């Protein structure tokens, strides 16, 4: 099932790219494997999938041991500062940086480990109260502040769009994030690249790709519905 789903999602990404004249190689599919067992992740891995997204530090560190070494781990969930030390050096990209304090902690840990940590700023484009992320205006200030920290590098922006029944409703959200990226690029800040736009999930990734997403985060569409009432297999 996983391999068929993956194939379908990849085909849809390619179709979305064709509709707007983009090169599908510009879009990285992140398979969001949170709550799912490594057995399912291996199925995806065997079909060529290398980028996996998780939203809990404990889950990344546990699965990290069990999956092949060339997996690229993406931290896409809210990150607590006291857990930063466990994932710096293990993750390819932290998508969810939304405060200067968190960025400072990442920077300090990165200096300690002598690595440079690529991050995205999480932007709450739609201004939903229930979501993490900074507002569009704050994002520019935060980028400027982070740009002066050592061993941390902003690579782009991430957003979690609202849950909607018609993905078209999120098109303006994706457009706004892309525009923010263009504006940020225009400021030419040190250590700030805006090459990555991480936007789009199972319900709306095709629209996100049409609007310029370079990373889409798809969970349900690859691994099926998540069941939060049972512990993942490998916890038993
Ligand atoms: C869970 C999650 C996803 C994937 O959601 P699906 O709707 O299952 O595709 C994407 N991004 C973030 C930040 C998530 O937490």
Biggest sheet, open or closed, and with what strands and sense?
A: 8 strands, parallel
Instruction: Give the tally of β-strands.
Output: 8
> Radius of gyration from the CA trace?
17 Å
Cα shape: globular
Which structural class do you get from the secondary structure elements? alpha/beta
Structure description:
The protein is α/β, with parallel strands linked by helices. It has helices spanning about 1-20, 40-45, 55-65, 85, 100-115, 135-145, 170-185, 205-210, 220-225, and strands at about 30, 50-55, 70-75, 95, 115-120, 150-160, 190-200, 215-220. It is built from nine helices and eight strands. An eight-stranded parallel β-sheet has the order 7-6-5-4-3-2-1-8. The radius of gyration is 17 Å and the shape is globular. α3 links the parallel β2 (about 50-55) and β3. The site of pyridoxal-5'-phosphate has 14 residues, from β8 and α9.
Which characteristics define this entry?
236 residues, 8-stranded parallel beta sheet, 8 strands, alpha/beta, single chain, binds pyridoxal-5'-phosphate
What is the secondary structure topology, with strand pairs?
Blueprint: H1 2-20, E1 28-32, H2 38-46, E2 51-54, H3 57-66, E3 72-75, H4 84-87, E4 93-97, H5 100-113, E5 117-122, H6 136-146, E6 152-158, H7 171-186, E7 192-198, H8 205-210, E8 215-218, H9 220-223
Parallel strand pairs: 1-2, 1-8, 2-3, 3-4, 4-5, 5-6, 6-7
Bound molecules: pyridoxal-5'-phosphate.
Pyridoxal-5'-phosphate binds at residues 32, 34, 55, 76-77, 160, 201-203, 217-221.
Give a concise summary.
39% of the residues lie in helices and 18% in strands. By secondary structure, it is α/β, with parallel strands linked by helices.
């Amino acid at each position: 099932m996983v391999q068929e789903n993956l194939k379908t999602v990849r085909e849809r990404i390619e179709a979305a790219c064709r509709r707007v004249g983009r090169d599908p190689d510009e879009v990285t599919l992140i398979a969001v494997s949170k709550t799912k067992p490594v057995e399912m992740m291996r199925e995806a891995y065997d079909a060529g999938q290398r980028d996996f997204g998780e939203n809990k530090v404990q889950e990344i560190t546990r699965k990290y041991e069990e999956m092949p070494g060339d997996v690229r781990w993406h931290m896409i969930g809210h990150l607590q500062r006291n857990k930063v030390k466990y994932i710096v050096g293990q993750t390819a990209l932290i998508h969810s940086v939304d405060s200067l304090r968190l960025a400072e902690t990442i920077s300090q840990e990165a200096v300690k480990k002598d690595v440079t940590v690529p991050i995205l700023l999480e932007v709450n484009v739609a201004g939903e109260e229930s979501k993490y992320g900074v507002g569009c205006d704050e994002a520019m200030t935060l980028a400027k502040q982070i740009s002066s920290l050592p061993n941390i590098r902003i690579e782009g922006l991430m957003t979690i769009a609202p849950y909607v029944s018609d993905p078209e409703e999120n098109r303006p959200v994706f457009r706004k994030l892309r525009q923010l990226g263009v504006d940020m690029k225009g400021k030419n800040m040190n250590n700030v690249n805006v090459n990555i736009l991480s936007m789009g999930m199972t319900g709306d990734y095709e629209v996100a790709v049409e609007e310029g997403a370079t990373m889409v985060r798809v969970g349900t569409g690859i691994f099926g519905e998540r069941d939060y009432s049972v512990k993942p297999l490998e916890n038993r």
